[in-house]
Fold this protein.
Amino acid sequence: MDNDAWLNLTTEDIIDPELPICDPHHHLVERLNGHYMLKELLQDVGTGHNIVKTVFVQCDLMYRKDGPKELRPVGETEFVAGIAGQHGTIDVAAGIVGFADLTQGTNVTKVLEAHIAAGRNRFRGIRQISAWDIGSYSNQPKELLLDPKFREGFACLQKYNLSFDAFFFHPQLKEVVDLAIAFPHITIIVDHIGSPLGIDSYVGKREEVFQDWKRGIGMLATCPNVAIKLGGLGRPRCGFGWNEQDMPPSSIELSKTMAPYFLWAIEQFGVDRCMFESNFPPDKMSYSYRIIWNTFKRITKDFSANERSALFHDTAIRIYRLETQEQQPS
């Protein structure tokens, strides 16, 4: 059974279908083992929730095939900017987050400027993945965020008013705290709620991981320049195993598992620094777009209208500066 057929085994009515949503984290994929482009994205965001804007986040898409190696990632921004815009009621890729190798130090400025020029006023930040753990995801340099050359390049983000999306694993939370303290004027956006691991050496240690994660999130929340995305728990590395079930999970099932993580993050950061994310298509292996947004709505059913507006829309709009599409400095 293919993934779409499996996902269709669990269906639900849309909860609060009028609630405006900005989805601040999705990808587009064009690979031999996966295809998820504009058509597939629009099919998902059009399943009933009121998605009004999205933010595209780097995923090694459509890099330039020639030219200087450091500038090849700009091809991703060029491609996404070319398909961005109003598609029906949805402003797709209202914000674009691309890749630049910050270990180039100050030489990275030419890459940042190229992204901004290519982004058609939609380019908002950089993501350079730093996720590293023995046996879990080790094709990134260990302690990248602490590397002096990386930090030299990271400092350049401030000049261009660019944010930094941080994708790491929960044992690395202290490294992100250190980075945030060192650069208080650069906005850091934590992807996937800090990615608590549940595979390899973490199997059977769910409560231990949860407590370690809680302590790290508490420390990170003391840094006012950090915001956090609530989502991304559907990947196998988190160890919940939803993708291995005979039936996809319902939003009731998901909310029971996810609520302790999301509610703790909201308690620590406040709704003005938290935003729900789909992380599609990676999380699509575990649940449908309709189901995951129903899950977020169930978890926040007792929140005030203003709090829900922040979590589902306003925080993402403010953090990614999507209120206007004004030209950024170059």
User: Anything to note?
Assistant: The longest helix spans residues 251-269.
